[in-house]
Amino acid sequence: MRRITAHLFHSLDGIVSSPHVWQFDAFDSGCGEAMGAALATTDAMILGRTAYEEWADYWPTHGDADPFGAFVNPLRKYVASRTLTEPLAWHNSTLLQGELTDAVRALRDTDGGDITVVGISVIRQLFLAGLIDALTLTTHPVVAGSGTRLWEAADEPLRLTLLDSRITEKGNAVLTYGPRR
Fold it and tell me: How many angstroms separate the CA atoms of 48 and 57, rounded?
């Protein structure tokens, strides 16, 4: 069974959207190392529609100029969308068919390395369904003020298990959680 992971940047007030707006100078080598370690065993990615559209617009033209572009462009990408249609323009991208949780369960049972999930609503849905094995939140020492939170007010309490923790040189808390089984 393949492991499914996700990694989000997180402000002290719980915002996970648009980290490029509030992350400022908080990103440091420790954050980069944590991301690199998390992606080292990844050979596929699940993206929500919004993340796919943003990334597909940017990364194909920045492939060799950036180490992340060189990593993500050839990667196998599965897209969760009810509005996009095949064929998808970004190399190695395929739409997930049917109900998201069923498609991810089937994908989890295939051969391969880890699968990472990108996209706030997809991460939330898969985590609440018990399909994400490790969720890393890199909490930056900044208050974003406004934006999207990962968890909604209507969510039931959710118990987690801390799998790993680290504080980087600029005070980022890199915390990895798994569901409490």
Answer: 14
Domain that holds residue 141: 4-179
Instruction: Give the single-character DSSP code of 8.
Output: E
Q: Is the peptide bond before 179 cis (omega within 30 degrees of 0)?
A: no
pLDDT digits 0-9 by tens, 46-75: 999 999 999 999 999 887 778 888 899 999
Q: Which residue(s) pair with 45 in the sheet?
A: 77, 116
Instruction: Identify the pLDDT of residue 147.
Output: 95
The C-alpha angle with vertex 85 and arms to 80 and 86, in degrees rounded to 5, equals: 100
Element of type H or E holding 48: strand 42-48
- Strand pairing class (173-179; 160-167): antiparallel
Q: What is the pTM of this model?
A: 0.93
Question: 173: domain CATH number?
Answer: 3.40.430.10
Residue 12 contacts residue 138 (beta carbons within 8 Å): no
Closest by CA position to 42, among listed 116, 107, 108: 116
Number of domains in the chain: 1
Specify the amino acid at residue 28: D
Contacts of 92-98 with C-beta under 8 Å, sequence gap 24+, read 93/52, 93/56, 96/46
pLDDT along the chain (181 residues), means of 10: 95 94 90 88 96 94 82 95 95 96 97 96 94 96 95 84 96 94 75
